[in-house]
Amino acid sequence: MYKDMAVMLEREVSRILKSYIMEEDSLLILELIDDIQRLGLAHRFESGIKKALDNLAFIIDGCNTMGNKSLHEVALGFRVLRQNGYFVSQDVFMDLVSNKDEALLKGCGQEDVRDMLSLYDASYLAYQGEDILDKAREHATERLNTFLMEISSSNGDENMEELVRHSLEVPLHRRMVMLEARWYIEAYKKKEGANMALLELAKLEFNMAQSVLQGDLKVSSRWDINVMSSMPKYMKLCFLAFYNTINEMGYEALKNYGHNTIPYLTKAWAGMLKAFLKEAKWSSKECNPPTFSEYMENAWISVSGAVILVHTYCHLDDELSDDNINYSKEALCHLMNSNKMLRWPSIIFRLCNDLATSSEEIARGETVNAISCYMNETGVSEEHAREHMKYLIDEAWKNMNEGLLLITKHEYSPMNDHVFSKSFLQSTINLARISHYTYHTGDSHGAPDAGSKKRVMSLLMNPIKS
């Protein structure tokens, strides 16, 4: 019944999207696509979204000014296109600056909070060296914080205030997709002119996805119990659990797709275990602490991001399909030998982890982490070291934006011959997003607070009521 209702609602939303495309109303198209994606429904409208964005990319290609469009529309178009893998030059914002070198924003909608929020969200899709977007972020952040201070002493727009606080807490581009969908469903209800078919479809989709996650959780729990009861010896348990798990996953990939992924999985695990061993040696009092560079070269592996992503790649249907056997072998080799795809999200994972856990680790006498290594090497204060880690996280995101969001098969992407699918690239970005959610307010993994528990419950246990 729910699936039939979802199909009916999907058809209605598709009809609306097609009508906007026919009318060539770029703002309506962009706002609808943005709502679809924020509500967690992008997979249902892939062909329609691609058709719409292909047309918009063609129109924008070569255009370096805002023309007569609002800042909101330009910034929204910039963000939506970039986050879907299309190249758009930062020069579309040139009308906002006095000259390209200074990149100082002028007027043009400074008082319009929606403009500033759209500009702020767009700025997080920046690449290395894009000074215009760096300045745009600084300016938009200042204006949005001023708005929050002003609205606290007046009866202003509460819905806009909620959106602004949400983005300033964790930028939209860095938010987990399903948790963002859970939050945005509630925010979308309050939006003027909200599409009820889209809203109801989002509720159904979330509840159906939550049901699948609950089933996965039950299977995982049952597997753990069975293994523990049948393998009483500690070392034997660890070895056999690892050995059997890898082989079981390898068997599934071989059976379903005809690929032997076991060598790649074991290589990823071996690399992480070696990194664990190196960290254990560094923890010894007899061993000199590593430099910051030495620590990070090992820590991006030990944080487990590479293992997670290799497993993800080996079990994505569109990566290991029967139609792409040679393609997948090429990509697997490239994945293992060219570590950028694994490195940048893992660096974000590691630095977010260390920012959240380093104080407790230092108090326990565990002094090998990014904060302490940087402090020891440079002699700066802990506060300065933390700010530097946040800067490195921003830089890693810029590399991901450029190295991942441009690597698609879209006609207008300058790197359209890459071997990875959009699904896998999105998985690498999602790993970085999970890192922000897990460690944004502390160690939600090792010492979860009430807020992190509430987020998990909203994702896994509490359905959305009609």
Give a structural overview:
InterPro entries: Isoprenoid_synthase_dom_sf (IPR008949), Terpene_synth_N (IPR001906), Terpene_synth_N_sf (IPR036965), Terpene_synthase-like (IPR050148), Terpene_synthase_metal-bd (IPR005630), Terpenoid_cyclase/PrenylTrfase (IPR008930). Keywords: Magnesium, Metal-binding. Residues 221-398 form the Terpene synthase metal-binding domain. The protein is an all-alpha fold. It folds into two domains: 2-200, Terpene synthase, N-terminal domain (Glycosyltransferase, Alpha/alpha barrel); 231-460, Orthogonal Bundle (Farnesyl Diphosphate Synthase). It has helices at 2-23, 26-38, 46-60, 71-83, 113-123, 131-151, 158-169, 177-189, 196-230, 234-257, 262-282, 292-302, 305-314, 325-337, 340-363, 370-378, 382-405, 422-439, 450-460. Helix 15 packs antiparallel against helix 17 and helix 15 (340-363) packs parallel to helix 18. The protein is globular, with a radius of gyration of 24 Å.
Search tags:
Glycosyltransferase, 19 helices, 466 residues, mainly alpha, Farnesyl Diphosphate Synthase, 2 domains
Care to give the gist of this entry?
By secondary structure, the chain is mostly helical. It is 69% helix and 0% strand.
* Overall shape: globular
Helix coverage percent of residues?
55-70%
Low-confidence blocks of residues? 99-104, 223-232, 409-417
Query: Which secondary-structure class do the elements indicate?
Result: mainly alpha
Distance between the termini: 15 Å
**Rg on CA atoms, Å:** 24 Å
Name the average pLDDT.
Answer: 82
At the third CATH level, what is the topology name of the largest domain?
Farnesyl Diphosphate Synthase
> How do the SSEs run, as a string of H and E?
HHHHHHHHHHHHHHHHHHH
**What's the total number of strands?**
0
- Main β-sheet: number of strands, strand sense, barrel status? none
Assign the CATH architecture of the largest domain.
Answer: Orthogonal Bundle
**CATH class descriptor name of the largest domain:** Mainly Alpha
Provide a count of the helices.
Answer: 19
The CATH superfamily of the largest domain is Farnesyl Diphosphate Synthase
The quaternary structure here is single chain
